[in-house]
Amino acid sequence: MTIETWIDITLIILAASLLICFVRLYIGPNPPNRAVAFDTIAMHAVGVFALIAMRSGAPELLDAAIVTAVLGFVGTMMFARYIEKSNVQDWESDEE
Amino acid sequence: MTTIEWVITFFILAGALFMLIGAVGIVRFPDVFARMHAAGMATTVGISALLLGAGFFFSDEFLFYRMLVLILLIFATSPISTTALTRAVYHNEPRLRKQLRHDEMAVTIVEEPVKELAGSPPAHTPAAPAPHVAD
């Protein structure tokens, strides 16, 4: 097996993991759960950028991975500020 | 496949499996604090291994250092965002606080009015010692 095959297998695993994250984004009963799912999806986007850069031999895509990491951090901080300032007490409980 | 390619394969497979474990934890764990625990820890290790594999893949020294800087950036920013999100959830969902076995933020919340009371007398410093002396 060449290394391209292994990169494809890794991309498939990462795509399955991303689908599982989208399940939490869909069924998450309140905004904090969706914010957690958003944080994880941003990290997955960085990983997918790195893997596609390796698969297509284009190291320029790693710069896009850096920008995506910074934007994911800023977005998660924005969600945290919003949740803290919104002061909503009657969200749906996430106990199962 | 050469040795460096096996090393790259090990790193990217380990990273993808760690991220899969983190995603399963996000869906399976019972409350939002446990989900943040899974999302903060497993994802950080997974993305670090993936980026280290990408740094080894391109045989470019400058690119490898740039991936190391990106790993350092993620190690710095991921705990910050997780802590901010946890504080936001803690302040907004009082029902979840009862599930915590050890609640360190409760001490902070009790101490905050005490600090305000202790901070307010210096504004009235000339008036405050006078009744004390009269006693």
Secondary structure elements and pairings:
The complex is a heterodimer of chains A (96) and B (135).
Chain A: H1 3-27, H2 31-56, H3 61-86
Helix pairs in contact in A: 1-2, 2-3
Chain B: H1 3-28, H2 32-57, H3 61-92, H4 94-97, H5 104-119, H6 129-134
Q: In a nutshell, what does this entry contain?
A:
With about 100 residues, chain A is mainly α.
3D architecture notes:
The complex is a heterodimer of chains A (96) and B (135). By secondary structure, chain A is mainly alpha-helical. Chain A has a domain at 28-84. Chain A is built from 3 helices and no strands. Chain A has helices spanning 3-27, 31-56, 61-86. The termini of chain A are far apart. Chain B has 135 residues and is mainly alpha-helical. Chain B has helices at residues 3-28, 32-57, 61-92, 94-97, 104-119, 129-134. The chains are: A mainly alpha (96), B mainly alpha (135).
Radius of gyration of chain A: 16 Å
* Beta-strand residue percentage of chain A: under 5%
Q: What is the helix tally of chain B?
A: 6
Biggest sheet statistics of chain B: none
Q: Work out the number of β strands of chain A.
A: 0
* Span between termini of chain B: 88 Å
Features:
heterodimer, A: 96 residues, mainly alpha, 3 helices, elongated, B: 135 residues
